[in-house]
Design brief:
2 copies of one chain form a homodimer.
Chain A lengths: L3 E6 L5 H12 L2 E3 L1 H11 L3 H9 L20 H23 L2 E4 L3 H4 L6 E6 L2 H10 L9 H23 L11 E4 L5 H14 L4
Parallel strand pairs in A: 1-3, 1-4, 2-3, 4-5
Helix pairs in contact in A: 1-8, 2-3, 2-4
Chain lengths: 205, 205
């Protein structure tokens, strides 16, 4: 069985960069936006549209047709969301069967639980996230600290809602992860080296 | 300034053992029950008594003396608890000034925050904690799984209450730690090696 590493991360914590470094150190494949690209290709939708659908928690609508039926009508948006989630599951399973890999986001820790992935959660203090957004990720240059902070918390909430909707688990529950790292005071390069060492030693390899 | 590592841990997660291994790898002093022994010595109380006082969240009693006063009377138990906590603070500061060290528990991450300690939280799945309690720590041999589970959760709750009472922070909040490690699937020896590497690389050294 291939070795899978999954990364969940707070927005602006450097989780994506850490994933890339770990993949490079271990010689594993790295998947991030590539998963959305493949879903878009197969579903014949644009990447932006797929991304939007996959990052929103679908809302169940239950219209009641008085005098006709009390059955909820199938919501086309909910169905689309479920179909794209299924496609995401298939694609994640394909890449996990292909080779050892690092996968960022996409509920991969839950979807690939049969592969016993090594599950990492990356977080950081708000000051550090604001700085990283502006300096490294080129996000929020035109926003005040307060506005950027709200945007960061909004993305976290979206990720958390989506994860909980799809998996039934709490995104922030440490028991869903093998290691949770605070990137505030640890350089990502050295953090990646240490985490790679833990991955090599972990029993679920 | 000396380098301080603090370890908070769920009961049965192997946090104490991990601390000992990290201290050995880095050549640091290691403090665990020694802190309670020193408090007992200076306060001229027994270790068991000190341990009990320091691990219980004191309850504020506010007796109202009708017709006399509405001022709360100073509670001798609360005062004792506060005095022992102050003694604990002094002793922790002394050991932190003496040499690089690893300190297990005792709210040391909070008390020594001026020293910018590297703060570790150790946790594990319940199955693993039950096993570790029985096999390694010799606890709960005469208890059913359910009873031992309740005892484990009770100790966690006590640690959490005491930490929150003394520090005003949440014990389980990941932002209070630099790294949180799940010891369920990672051998402690290798985990200690990796954590020691992260400590060496961290900026708060």
């Amino acid at each position: 069985m291939n070795r899978i590493i999954t990364i969940s991360r707070e927005f602006g914590s450097g989780g994506r960069e850490l994933g890339r470094l770990i993949a490079a150190k271990l010689g594993y494949a790295y998947y991030d936006k590539e998963i959305v690209s493949r879903i878009a290709e197969r579903s014949e939708m644009t990447e932006t549209y797929v991304q939007n659908v996959l990052e929103q928690k679908p809302f169940l609508t239950l219209p009641i047709h008085v005098g006709v039926s009390l059955e909820p009508t199938a919501d086309p948006l909910l169905m689309q969301s479920q179909e794209l989630f299924q496609l995401q599951c298939s694609i994640l399973k394909e890449v996990a069967e292909k080779s050892d890999c690092v996968i960022v986001g996409r509920c991969a820790d839950y979807i690939l639980s049969d592969c016993h992935p090594f599950r990492i959660f990356v977080y950081a203090e708000m000051e550090s996230r604001l700085r990283r957004c502006r300096e490294t990720e080129g996000v929020g240059q035109d926003l005040s600290d307060r506005e950027l902070r709200n945007q960061i918390l909004g993305v976290d909430r979206q990720r958390s809602d989506y994860y909980e909707f799809c998996t039934g688990n709490k995104w922030s529950d440490r028991l869903n992860y093998d290691i949770c790292v605070n990137s505030t005071n640890i350089p990502l390069e050295e953090l990646a080296e240490s985490v790679a060492m833990v991955v090599r030693a972990s029993k679920n390899s």
